[in-house]
């Protein structure tokens, strides 16, 4: 009977640990490539022209995300970040809705890092609240939001609300 009880407890703990497992950068590997472009064609994208300086500075810093992309970010007020993704193979600037007015409200204060990413991984983590272009804004809880970059967009893998 004790063995059965112990087996049930271990099964429950294993299930709980699996449910709490957070995505890791190493689980979404990608080979880092050399950029093919050195300038963005601002004539093709009026939004990019608006952020010419920030985007150009970020591109000069080099690849920092998912093998051949550059994440460029800038502030939009206290605890707020806007960002874009630059494809260094095409020079195209991508505008994921999750990067529009990212709210860094994180529990009782503000997160030090709103966007967490690596150049050799397709995983990106938003600490706070993802942005949205909807007028009502993002109404989900503050927390950690794990996204996989795939085919030019983010796919939500997991979210962990903070209390």
Q: How would you summarize what this structure contains?
A:
This protein is an alpha+beta fold. The chain has helices at 2-20, 46-50, 52-61; strands spanning 69-75, 80-87, 93-94, 102-103, 105-106, 109-110, 115-117, 123-128, 143-150, 153-161. It has one domain (27-161).
Give an overview of the whole structure.
With 163 residues, this protein is an alpha+beta fold. It has one domain. Helix content is 21%, strand content 30%. The chain contains 3 helices and 10 strands; from the N terminus they run αααββββββββββ. The chain has helices spanning 2-20, 46-50, 52-61, and strands at 69-75, 80-87, 93-94, 102-103, 105-106, 109-110, 115-117, 123-128, 143-150, 153-161. Strands 1, 2, 3 and 4 form a 4-stranded antiparallel sheet that branches. It has a 4-stranded antiparallel sheet with strand order 7-8-9-10, with no helix packed on it. Strand 5 and strand 6 (109-110) form a beta hairpin. The longest helix is centred in the N-terminal third of the chain and has 19 residues, at 2-20. The radius of gyration is 19 Å and the shape is globular. The termini are far apart.
Task: Note the main attributes of this structure.
163 residues, alpha+beta, 4-stranded antiparallel sheet, 10 strands, 21% helix, disordered N terminus
């Amino acid at each position: 009977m004790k063995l059965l009880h112990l087996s049930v407890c271990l099964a429950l703990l294993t299930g709980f640990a699996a449910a709490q497992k957070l995505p890791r950068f190493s689980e979404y590997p990608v080979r880092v490539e050399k950029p093919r472009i050195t300038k963005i064609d601002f004539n093709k994208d009026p939004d990019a022209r608006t952020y010419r300086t920030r985007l150009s500075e970020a591109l000069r810093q080099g690849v920092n995300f998912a093998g051949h992309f550059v994440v460029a970010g800038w502030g939009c007020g206290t605890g707020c970040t806007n960002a874009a993704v630059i494809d260094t193979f095409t020079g195209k600037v991508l505008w994921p809705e999750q990067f529009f007015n990212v709210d860094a409200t994180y529990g009782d204060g503000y997160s030090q890092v709103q966007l967490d990413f690596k150049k050799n991984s397709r995983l990106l983590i938003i600490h706070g609240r993802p942005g949205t272009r909807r007028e009502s804004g993002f109404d989900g809880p503050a927390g950690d939001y794990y996204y996989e970059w795939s085919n030019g967009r983010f796919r939500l893998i997991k979210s962990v609300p903070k209390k």
